[in-house]
Structure formats: structure tokens, C-alpha cells
């Protein structure tokens, strides 16, 4: 039997539990090659099933799972890692026990994937504030996973069928971006992107477009010198290493060509440069992927959505896309081993 895709429950008081159940009941998880296993909490999932009027029945499970939950006519394997008082939890108000549970789900899934017992992990959204209040020193999934996997540099990729964007910098004030950029970081982002697309998307020579920072790619230095000073040298070094990278491309035109299929990935200098076009095309079905880990990790491209948690209104589209992309990546090739000082250049 193939190793399972491990789906972490996320914040028990957010939309994670209900979109998992909604995806299950929709039939969108029926035709996966890999079995699906939820790292989470049985009572929280039963509470989510009540939102959809679905009857549940619980039985023991074998293997990695501890329980099998029948929801309507479908079943879900669960590894129970917490026993929260689901009936007392208020949507949108996670306590420290919820925070500890979120971390436990992530760590268990990561460890199983590192051990080869899980094919990939897919994460539902967490509350950064809740895990911090519970004692976690990490601001979110990415940092926790990088530390646990022993890597120094990872790349955030947001992906859909038509467009995949990889970010050199992530959550920074726009004014801080120019100072945060370096030729080394740009080069390493290109290398990690190239290696991940070769391993996990079965591309022999991924076509990578690297964006400029400034309008019109700096217009020969009139609008800034980062293109000539930082970005072009990084691209040149990547090309010397056998990577099919081009640029610096002007961001105002490049996405037209990327969306029509001329490139496999776009390396972007800052958050909104990549996420605005990505969400224009893939608002409902975008997937957050962490490249550079020795395991496959995908995630929904949205947060805990406390404003609608507990209503059953949250869309399951991003979760379904994340599960399917995780399976695709897991089947396409084996991850490279973790390194503490840099990544395999592929």
C-alpha cells in the first residue's frame, strides 16, 4: 500500500475541520491514489460533520491511523493527537490547548514524512497567535518545518494550473524589500525552484522567468540599479549552472506570457508582485507550497477565516487543490536529503 497523504487539521476553531469534511463529502477526495490520513482530533471533526447534517460513526483503525470515522457514506482515517472539549470550543477563539494541538499535528505529520511513512503533508490553516501563546517560537508553518527538517533556506511558492510564483522575499514592508535583496538570495531561490520542479513536477529543464524589481526592469538604471547590480548577476550564475533562467523581466508584461504557458515558474522579488496575479487567476484554488524541504508540503492558500468559521460556507477548493498537488509532487520524484548549509543545486 502506498504511504498516506497526511492532512493536518489546522486550528480547531477555524475553517480547517469543516473544509476537510466538506471536501470529503463532496467526493473530491474519492479518486486519490494515496490513502488520506488526518492528523487531528476526532471530536472536532465530528463537530464539523454536524454543520453539514452528516451522521458519523467511529471505529478503530490499523496502521498509522488510530480511528476510522464514517461520515455519511464516506470514511476518514484519523490519527488522534489531541482530545479537545469540542463542545466547549468557540469558533474563532483558540485557547492555549488548541495552540499546542496545532503544533502537535504539524510535528507529527512532518516526522512521519521524514521517516518515509507519509508521502506528503497538506496543512490546513493555523493561528500564528495561538501557537505563539502556546509556547512555539515559530511564527508559522514554514519556519517550524524548516527547523524540524534541518534546512536554512526554503522558498514560498503559490501555485495554480496556469501560474506558479516563487518569492525571494515574503512578508516584508515594501520599503524594506530593496535592502533585503541580495544576489545570493536571488540565486538560491532560482536554484531551489529549479531543483523542486525537476524533482516534483517531472520537468527536465524547467523554464524559469526572473522578474525585475523596478518598473521597465530599471530602464537601464533610470529607475533603480537592482537589476544590473543584483538580479542579472544571479541569473547569469544560474545559467552557468545549467538552469534555464531568463530575465530580469518587467513584471507588467511577463505575467501575460507566463499565464499562457511560456514559463513553468516565475521568481518574484516581493510578496505582492507575485500574489496579485496569482490570486487574480487562482483566488479559490491557489496552493501554498514550501520548496526546499526534504519532504513534500502543500497548504491551502487562505487563513483560518474566523469570520465564517462554523457556518459551513468556507470553500474547500483550495484544500482539494492542495491535496491533489501534494499527490502529484509525491509521485513525480523523491525529495533530496536535508542540508543545514545550503541546498542541493539539482
TrEMBL record:
A divalent metal cation binds at residues 171, 216, 271. Keywords: Cytoplasm, Metal-binding, NAD, NADP, Oxidoreductase, Pyridoxine biosynthesis. One of its GO terms (cellular component) is cytoplasm. GO terms for biological process: pyridoxal phosphate biosynthetic process; pyridoxine biosynthetic process. The keyword Iron-sulfur does not apply. Pathway: Cofactor biosynthesis; pyridoxine 5'-phosphate biosynthesis; pyridoxine 5'-phosphate from D-erythrose 4-phosphate: step 4/5. It is found in: Cytoplasm. It catalyses: 4-(phosphooxy)-L-threonine + NAD(+) = 3-amino-2-oxopropyl phosphate + CO2 + NADH. One of its GO terms (molecular function) is metal ion binding. Its cofactor is a divalent metal cation. Substrate binds at residues 141-142, 279, 288, 297. Its main location: cytoplasm. The keyword Cytoplasm applies. InterPro entries: PdxA, PdxA_fam. Binds 1 divalent metal cation per subunit. Its EC number is 1.1.1.262. PANTHER family: 4-HYDROXYTHREONINE-4-PHOSPHATE DEHYDROGENASE, D-THREONATE 4-PHOSPHATE DEHYDROGENASE. Belongs to the PdxA family. Homodimer. Catalyzes the NAD(P)-dependent oxidation of 4-(phosphooxy)-L-threonine (HTP) into 2-amino-3-oxo-4-(phosphooxy)butyric acid which spontaneously decarboxylates to form 3-amino-2-oxopropyl phosphate (AHAP). The active site is located at the dimer interface. This is 4-hydroxythreonine-4-phosphate dehydrogenase. It comes from Desulfuromonas soudanensis.
